[in-house]
Design a protein that fits this description.
Blueprint: H1 15-30, E1 43-48, H2 54-65, E2 69-74, H3 87-94, E3 100-105, H4 110-116, E4 122-127, H5 133-147, E5 154-158, H6 165-174, E6 181-185, H7 194-202, E7 207-211, E8 223-226, H8 237-243, H9 251-254, E9 262-264, H10 285-304
Parallel strand pairs: 1-2, 1-3, 3-4, 5-6, 5-8, 6-7, 8-9
Helix pairs in contact: 1-10, 2-10, 3-4, 5-6, 5-10, 6-7
Bound molecules: N-carbamoyl-L-aspartate (NCD).
Length: 308
Amino acid sequence: MLKGRSLIEPLDFSVEELDALFGLANEIAEAPEQYADACAGKLLATLFYEPSTRTRFSFEAAMLRLGGKVIGFSGEANSSAAKGESIADTIRTVACYADVAVIRHPKEGSALVAAKRTDMPVINGGDGGHQHPTQTLTDLLTIRREKGRLNGLRIGLCGDLKFGRTVHSLIKALSRYEDMEFCLISPEELVAPEYVVRYIRQGRDCGYTEARHMKEVMGRLDILYMTRVQRERFFNEEDYLRLKDTYILDAKKMKDAPQDMIVMHPLPRVNEIAPEVDEDPRAKYFEQAKNGMYVRMALIMSLLGVGV
Ligand code: NCD
């Protein structure tokens, strides 16, 4: 039962709970109109201290499509944080008005701090360079829908593995499944943090290889997960400029990839996937964005305990 719980970390839900959630998301995707009133009378609060397009809009769209309502702010300047209010006080106030809240914040651990201060379900919409569990739900649902399974897969994660929170959460979540192989493709300076690699080492039959060039692994991947270099988390602009275009996936590189490999990206993309790749049937990043709405609909329903 997910009713009344929060989602702060990718492993907060068991594999069985995730299966049920994905089952519901698939049912919603089949017939969304049947859920049009599922959350009537309920209110979602979106507290976004950092920029977002997909995460905020997909949460808002999810709640509106469930017949619920949404309040919130986007940008610290538009909330009392600008006056110096703590996240603990903000969440306790929001809990007086809303039934569930999603928080995106530049500081690691902020969603956890908020969740500890209230009985209202709190969803982590990204905490700094740390975790992004609802992007992981989106990614897992997409892999399940496209590949039919969440084990025995070889996944290449490419780009900024140091600061990319979607990668950190996805590795953590996938290491729980059997027989996964991770190909970590990044420049030396942007390798995955040690604590993230440790999830793989502790996983069941999971292994990893490191690569500096895409072509080293391209021919044997089931999934290629591209990411942008996280400009806002760099200490200096010079390093960002030097590293930002290290990997650019284009039609030529796609020729080396298996016919059934899928390309994913949490978006936004900058230069790392050439627009020409969008026409390739293996490109799944916009489907992925759509799955994000369905899985968030399933999540909101489950945390509120409605219709499940
Ligand atoms: C990601 C994020 O915010 O971490 N975006 C998203 O939520 N889809 C990825 C990114 O910003 O690069």
